[in-house]
Amino acid sequence: MRLPSDPFSGLNAFLAVAETAGFSAAAARLGVSPAATSQAIRALEARLGTPLFVRTTRRVRLTEAGAALLMRVRPAAAEISDAITSAAATQQEPSGLLRLTVPRMAVPLIIDPVLPAFRQAHPKVAVEIAIEDATVDLLGRGFDAGIRIGEYVEQDMVGIKLTRDISWSVVAGPAYLAARGVPATLEELATHECIRYRFPSSGVVYRWEFEREGASVVVDPPGSIVVNDGALLASFAVSNLGLSYVADIAVEAELRAGSLVRVLEACSPTTPGLFLYFPRRAQQQPKLRAFIDTVKQLLRTDETRQGSVNT
């Protein structure tokens, strides 16, 4: 088969249609008309001598030849894109839109101290922050990076440790404990009012996890208040509405001030702290590289605060 003068002709349109499963969506991604996209695909199919897509009025799907081509072309296209991004990054000033997804507890711990310094140093980078505790598909949702507790970060992501490890603690206000008593055992939680947390994504109400004598113990405590916002767990406990199960790093100020008291400390489990995470290729973007550098500069107090989820 005679090679065309441009062997890449039509491949961009092919990738867009394959990944969006539609000509209109692919055209929108490419910034061209659906007709132009269709024409590019027809030209590619004619050049290869085989159909790449089966088209119906309702859907577009790959043929066997199209699926085989996608398997070879997609990683090659990613490599080319990475090479171009890397070459441009050496001379490019950070700019564009940086999209981050962070849990609510990370706002006072990470975002509040980092964002002012980052914006001052890199005014050409706009920042969009989505506050959500649920697990997020970074690539699917179009985020550049996220912050999550280490155990919830996907293994194929690069992770930078931002905080110390977390001790998960049962806390309550002094007035509540004075009125209801201090639980001395996990079994005594059954006699208390416990403020529960419902996961936003799954809708499951979290069962409290403990460690006792080297074994894991799960308790499903009673409670007439259920929230899906981690910040409310602390604020309701401060208001003496019941016991809450929280990350100790999220309530350090309240513990120091005495507005919250830890109970059942001997049973508190420990998990990895908060991590900034992102796909390996994404760190080549100047805007994300600049944010990473700012985070490291402001939050690192010693080398033990740095770590990687992907070892």
Describe the structure.
The protein has helices at residues 11-20, 23-30, 34-48, 64-89, 106-121, 138-141, 174-180, 230-238, 252-257, 286-299, and strands at residues 53-55, 60-62, 96-102, 125-131, 145-149, 158-161, 166-172, 195-197, 208-212, 215-219, 225-227, 244-247, 261-263, 270-271, 274-278. The protein has 311 residues and is of the alpha+beta class. It has three domains: 11-89, Winged helix-like DNA-binding domain superfamily/Winged helix DNA-binding domain (Arc Repressor Mutant, subunit A, Orthogonal Bundle), CATH 1.10.10.10; 96-165 and 273-305, 3-Layer(aba) Sandwich (D-Maltodextrin-Binding Protein, domain 2); 166-271, D-Maltodextrin-Binding Protein, domain 2, CATH 3.40.190.290. 27% of the residues are buried. Residues 301-311 have low confidence and may be disordered.
